[in-house]
Amino acid sequence: MINSKKQQQIQEHMSQLNQKVFTSKQLKENVSDTHAKVSWVYGSAFKAGFRCSDVKRSMVYLPPSARSVSSRLVYFTACIVVIYSPELNKQQHYLQHTSQILAIASGRALIATGEQCQEPAIHIWDPDSLCTLGLIKGTL
Q1: What end-to-end distance do the CA atoms of the chain give, in Å?
Q2: β-pairing, 121-125 with 72-77?
Q3: How far is the C-alpha of 111 from the C-alpha of 98, rounded, in Å?
Q4: What is the secondary structure of the chain as a DSSP string?
Q5: In whole angstroms, how large is the CA radius of gyration of the chain?
Q6: pLDDT of 13-61, one tens digit each?
Q7: Is residue 59 within 8 Å of residue 72, measured between CB atoms?
Q8: Over the stretch 86-125, which tens digit does the pLDDT of each residue have?
Q9: How many alpha carbons fall within 13 Å on the CB side of residue 95?
Q10: d(Cα 88, Cα 77) in Å, to the nearest integer?
Q11: Distance of CA 64 to the CA centre of its chain
Q12: What is the mean pLDDT of residues 62-89?
């Protein structure tokens, strides 16, 4: 009896949700009003049990520079690159990847990140301005 009562409540709740769902016409009208901004990213590619087997280097360290007063850790999760400043407890995000990131490398003032997909790309970008400086595309 309890299970059937719970099932009935679930069905009622689902029917109420179905009534609230936008039709495609309503959704198209409101698309320009919707946007999202990443404020904080939790998780990483170097946590135990997640992508550790096929990722050799999942984090790079950037020492303080003329343009950045604090040291930073740069790591990725999914298609987001996180630039974390531990001293300031602040994150910045490079959001130009469209597929899951598999590799990261750093030079003197640049970061390169590569993604895994049918048409992979390597993004070369500035960690201070988050501007993409180059893009190398390929096919598998």
Answers
A1: 56
A2: unpaired
A3: 17
A4: -HHHHHHHHHHHHHHHHHHHSPPHHHHHHHGGG-----------TTSTTSSTTT-S--EEEE---SS-SS-EEEEEETTEEEEEETTTTEEEEE---SS-EEEEEE-SS-EEEEE-SSS-EEEEE-TTT--EEEEEE---
A5: 21
A6: 666 655 555 555 555 555 565 677 888 988 765 554 455 567 778 889 9
A7: no
A8: 999 999 999 999 998 989 999 878 999 999 888 999 999 9
A9: 9
A10: 21
A11: 24
A12: 91
The answer to whether residues 27 and 21 touch, using CB atoms and an 8 Å cutoff, is no
Q: List the structure tokens of 26.
A: 């309503």
CB within 8 Å of 122: residues ≥ 6 apart: 112, 113, 114, 115, 135, 136
Distance (Å) of CA 125 to CA 35, 113, 120: 24, 8, 16
Dig out the tokens for 23 from the structure. 């039709």
In this structure, are residues 110 and 124 in contact, taking their beta carbons and an 8 Å threshold? yes
